[in-house]
Automatic annotation (TrEMBL):
GO cellular component terms, A-Z: peroxisomal membrane
InterPro entries cross-referenced by the UniProt entry: Pex26
UniProt source species: Ceuthmochares aereus
Highest taxon of the lineage: Eukaryota
Gene (name only): Pex26_1
Protein name in UniProt: PEX26 protein
Regions that span the bilayer: none
Length: 201
């Protein structure tokens, strides 16, 4: 078929990027990314950067077509386990699912990635931890999990830990205020309904 004659993964990446940015042909861009990733296979270290870039272009193309629901399973087919996802891909996924208000999609994947020993030594670890806190755990009200994650993280120095714990605490306070305002509003609605019924009877 045509794939046998297809160029190397690196030139597929170039084509995919052109299709995404210049031609805005998103479906064709995704096809190039898939062909490139399949060519590289799983666990090819030398080509890790090309593969990561192919996935980044693919994610953007899928998002442009409003096929964001497929993004996570799409990248996982090329990395097999969440722990192996490159930091850049995890970052994009967190931001994407946060933007479409579906942060829970990244709950388990993010947690697996951050618990992995190898990932803890990566320079991007701190910023991804922060991203996961702000865009996944806190919007979902997972305050205990957030605190555990921060306290159990050797990759953070004391100052960073304190900053994160403060952020969690502030978020928890906001959450509590919103809950309170919400139940007060409901009480007012009930009271209003009672006065209306009172008038009717």
């Amino acid at each position: 078929g045509e794939s046998a004659a297809w160029p190397s993964a690196a030139s597929l990446l170039e084509e995919a990027a052109d299709l995404l940015v210049l031609h805005r042909d998103f479906a064709a861009a995704v096809r190039r990314c898939e062909a490139g990733c399949e060519r590289l296979g799983v666990g090819a270290d030398s080509s890790a950067e090309v593969k990561c870039s192919l996935c980044v272009v693919g994610i953007q193309a899928l998002a442009e077509m409003n096929r964001w629901r497929e993004v996570l399973s799409w990248v996982l087919q090329y990395y097999q386990v969440p722990e192996h996802l490159p930091p850049k891909v995890v970052e994009l996924c967190i931001l994407l699912y946060s933007k479409v208000s579906e942060p829970q999609v990244m709950l388990e994947v993010g947690s697996s990635w951050l618990r992995d020993q190898t990932n803890k030594s990566l320079p991007e670890y701190g910023s991804l931890l922060e991203l996961y806190l702000l865009h996944v755990l806190l919007p979902l009200g997972r305050f205990e999990g957030a605190e555990e994650l921060v306290r159990g993280c050797d990759a953070l120095d004391n100052e960073q830990q304190q900053t994160f714990l403060r952020t969690i605490f502030e978020s928890q306070c906001q959450w509590a205020q919103q809950e309170e305002a919400h139940s007060e509003a409901e009480e007012q609605q009930d009271a209003a309904a009672e006065t209306v019924l009172g008038r009717l009877s």
